[in-house]
Amino acid sequence: MQSRTPVPRVAGRPRSTAADTAILAATREALVELGWSKLTLGDVATRAGVAKTTLYRRWAGKNELVVDAVAELFDELHLPDRGTLAADIEGVVLQFAAILARPEAKSGLMAVVAESVRDDALRDRIRESIVDRQKCLVVEGRARAQARGELPPETDPEEAARTADLIFDVVAGAVVHRTLVSAEPADEDWVRSFTQVLLLGLTSLSAAQSPPA
Amino acid sequence: MQSRTPVPRVAGRPRSTAADTAILAATREALVELGWSKLTLGDVATRAGVAKTTLYRRWAGKNELVVDAVAELFDELHLPDRGTLAADIEGVVLQFAAILARPEAKSGLMAVVAESVRDDALRDRIRESIVDRQKCLVVEGRARAQARGELPPETDPEEAARTADLIFDVVAGAVVHRTLVSAEPADEDWVRSFTQVLLLGLTSLSAAQSPPA
DNA sequence: GTGGTTTCGCTACGAGTCGTAGCGTAATGG
DNA sequence: CCATTACGCTACGACTCGTAGCGAAACCAC
């Protein structure tokens, strides 16, 4: 937790930040045109206008590179404040769906998730740079709804964490499955229906767990 | 739609069915040991005790082979009749979770789904041999619940189809996301919580759509 | 300036995989 | 017996991988 880049830490030629952005952009471009399996690091290097060795100095391989390239797509994900929990959920789910609709996200995200099954370090990298940021939105949205009085406050913090995990898996999983497996758009109508089911389930669950005295 | 294998359609040596089963089993074994990316067709051929050319005569490539190998895992998926909709859902979701917990399913399934983003024929193959069979369980389970009176009968068949698709994406997506992305087991506790939320959402939705006169 | 350090672009390399072709042999049906 | 198809085996060119070596460039401390 020290100031970021107080001085380029050590002597020597600094790494070109322009090369970083060019490489990540070239990676997304190659994902769109070629898809995951036909994407080669040599091709990405050519597109980015850098040498292949430069690429290998910064990333261990295809997996890590694509994770970073895809993670940038999720930077635009923010929790809107539309006044009601239902509207907030619809808004953030639509944002998530819009990102997943992009071909570079479709091609890259599931591929690295599949790879992460046998690579713990990769899984941690995905979790840190992509998943955890999404999960924060769930927690934040619930806190906001509780402040509004739409949801009862949590009693057991452990139970609260489990519920947040459950919601996150349901939301992210449903959108991903709709987009990639069913291969149909998660448009406004779908998101509205989905939000309705989820919200009714959650409120009914809260009512069942803490019945009115 | 003609009888299957009335007689080996044409003259010549028939294909060895033993080779088929050996190859698919070897593919799953290689998926467990090596994962998707390091699985090579030459290695699978060696494990199965067949020549590499035999493999290429039957499958166009790695994608198609793995789809068939993984599809067999879902043969054991059946809808139990436990008396209530909640119990039925819990049962089938637990079965689905058990299959997804196997390393060959984790390694293979998401990888071919990722590939199917850029390969329409592969997507159709996945849908036909894996996805559609699962979706049938949703429709069947709902029909059974309606027969029991747990769910109101459908009025609009188009709306019914949309709802079935939604349920399917929610169920399959949530289990997949829990298993692969969150990397935590979809055990009985989790399935029970998930089923509760889903079921409360669905029944509340039905009540809202067709309010009691 | 000068020296030390790190990055960069470039070329080249062995290793491994891919998908196919060719050949002789085995198993079926007419 | 003969035509036809599948099989095992070997070999092959094409491609990608990840690394090593080189000289030049960019930065810092002195």
Describe this structure as you would to a colleague:
The structure is a homodimer of 213-residue chains. The first copy, chain A, has 213 residues and is an all-alpha fold. Helices cover 70% and strands 0% of the residues of chain A. Chain A contains nine helices and no strands. The longest helix of chain A is centred in the middle third of the chain and has 29 residues, at 120-148. The radius of gyration of chain A is 20 Å and the shape is elongated. The N and C termini of chain A lie far apart (48 Å). Residues 1-6 of chain A have low confidence and may be disordered. At the A-B interface, helix 6, helix 7, helix 8 and helix 9 of A face helix 6, helix 7, helix 8 and helix 9 of B. Chain A binds a DNA duplex (30 and 30 nucleotides) through residues 7-8, 10-16, 19, 40-42, 50-54, 56-57, 61.
